[in-house]
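Quick question, first post here. What does this chain look like in 3D?
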Amino acid sequence: MVTVEAQRDLTFSLNHSTICLSGVSPNQTLLEYLRLTGYVGTKEGCGDGDCGACTVVLIGADEQGKPQPTQYPN
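> Answer (accepted):
Ran it through. Tokens below.
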């Protein structure tokens, strides 16, 4: 039996620029995307998210554009 991964479309802001991606694999990480597009400051250390080397800062905004609490996904 062949398993087909559901790809997704994503839209997000990166350094004040809107990024729209189509057909993103659920296996691709944000770290992989950043490094493939030239943002090489984020590193992969342990590969598990425990050491913090791959941490990026996410800042959301509400409907009025006010910043929301910062999140640190890894």
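The chain has one domain: 8-71.
The mean pLDDT is 81.
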